[in-house]
């Protein structure tokens, strides 16, 4: 699965808007994830997961920054996320099903914050883009 | 299947009261067909689905979307017995429509996204969590009679 030119344009132009709210978007995405899918908290026994926690904010920023790296290198996401891919395969070993859950929560966060931009076409482009990112992050799993 | 707290029920019911079922139905079904184009396999008789704008403007999509969400609205009045509410529809989706239950999960998440677009800030993480329970419950009830 690869992104069309139109899809890349949509992602890149929306990213420009998103990046101004990157940190809060990251935090909100994680809050949504942990509330809707409590089982995902099992990956964070070492975290204070209360809303407003510094760890939650820091981690949310990290996640969105990585999505941003993928957007900024949209013609070669594999290369941009090599280190993260290895991290997830050999260290974190997050079950692949969770990438869909996180992607969905990020989409919902974007939809709520940028309703006018989140057309059906943009929705499709983002779902596909996050799916590609998820594939890259799991491609070394076995 | 998940258990709905009184808070979940209140959250779900109050938000649903503000939804225009006709608009949301068309939006939800349309986006399913655009974001997950393989789902178009069930709708050969719907005419032009060749582009996002064709899908979103297609009158058959809008009509069918309204039908689907109206049914969901009925379920909201019976959150404690989703299985009973959807028993016949479950058999229909299995025996006549031959719909893979995975599609219920996809549609549920598209609906959640449409609600987020519509309600913005009001669609807080807590509100979303209640609605994820809702759509998961519906998906489960709709697949409960599959054999």
UniProtKB/TrEMBL annotation, chain A:
Residues 2-142 form the Globin domain. Belongs to the globin family. InterPro entries: Globin, Globin-like_sf, Globin/Proto, Hemoglobin_a-typ, Hemoglobin_oxygen_transport, Hemoglobin_zeta. Keywords: Heme, Iron, Metal-binding, Oxygen transport, Transport. It comes from the Eukaryota. One of its GO terms (biological process) is hydrogen peroxide catabolic process. GO terms for cellular component: blood microparticle; haptoglobin-hemoglobin complex; hemoglobin complex. The lineage of its organism: Eukaryota, Metazoa, Chordata, Craniata, Vertebrata. One of its GO terms (molecular function) is peroxidase activity. This is Hemoglobin subunit zeta. The zeta chain is an alpha-type chain of mammalian embryonic hemoglobin. The keyword Transport applies. It comes from Rhinopithecus roxellana (Golden snub-nosed monkey).
Automatic annotation (TrEMBL), chain B:
InterPro entries: Globin (IPR000971), Globin-like_sf (IPR009050), Globin/Proto (IPR012292), Hemoglobin_b (IPR002337), Hemoglobin_oxygen_transport (IPR050056). SUPFAM superfamilies: Globin-like. Pfam families: Globin. One of its GO terms (biological process) is hydrogen peroxide catabolic process. The keyword Transport applies. The keyword Repressor does not apply. One of its GO terms (cellular component) is hemoglobin complex. One of its GO terms (molecular function) is oxygen binding. Residues 3-147 form the Globin domain. Keywords: Heme, Iron, Metal-binding, Oxygen transport, Transport. Gamma chains make up the fetal hemoglobin F, in combination with alpha chains. Belongs to the globin family. This is Hemoglobin subunit gamma-like. It comes from Rhinopithecus roxellana. The lineage of its organism: Eukaryota, Metazoa, Chordata, Craniata, Vertebrata.
């Amino acid at each position: 699965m690869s992104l069309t030119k139109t899809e890349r344009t949509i992602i890149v132009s929306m990213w420009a808007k998103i990046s101004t709210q990157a940190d809060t978007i990251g935090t909100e995405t994680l809050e949504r994830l942990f509330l809707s899918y409590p089982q995902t908290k099992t990956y964070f026994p070492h975290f204070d997961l209360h809303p407003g926690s510094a760890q939650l904010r820091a981690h949310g920023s990290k996640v969105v920054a990585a999505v941003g790296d993928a957007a900024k290198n949209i013609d070669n996401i594999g290369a941009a996320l090599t280190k993260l891919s290895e991290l997830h395969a050999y260290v974190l070993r997050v079950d692949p099903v969770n990438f869909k859950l996180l992607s969905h929560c990020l989409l919902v966060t974007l939809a709520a914050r940028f309703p006018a931009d989140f057309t059906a076409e943009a929705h499709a482009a983002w779902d596909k883009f996050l799916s590609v990112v998820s594939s890259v992050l799991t491609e070394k799993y076995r | 299947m998940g258990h709905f707290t009184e808070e979940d029920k209140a959250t779900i019911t109050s938000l649903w009261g503000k939804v225009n079922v006709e608009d949301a139905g068309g939006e939800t079904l349309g986006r399913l067909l655009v974001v997950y184009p393989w789902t178009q396999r069930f709708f050969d008789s719907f005419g032009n689905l060749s582009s996002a704008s064709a899908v979103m403007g297609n009158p058959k999509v809008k009509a069918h979307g309204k039908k689907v969400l109206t049914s969901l609205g009925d379920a909201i009045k019976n959150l404690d017995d989703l299985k009973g509410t959807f028993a016949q529809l479950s058999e229909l989706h299995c025996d006549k429509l031959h719909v893979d239950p995975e599609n219920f999960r996809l549609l549920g998440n598209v609906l959640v996204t449409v609600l987020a677009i519509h309600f913005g800030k009001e669609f807080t993480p807590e509100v979303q969590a209640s609605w994820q329970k809702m759509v998961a419950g519906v998906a489960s009830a709709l697949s409960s009679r599959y054999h």
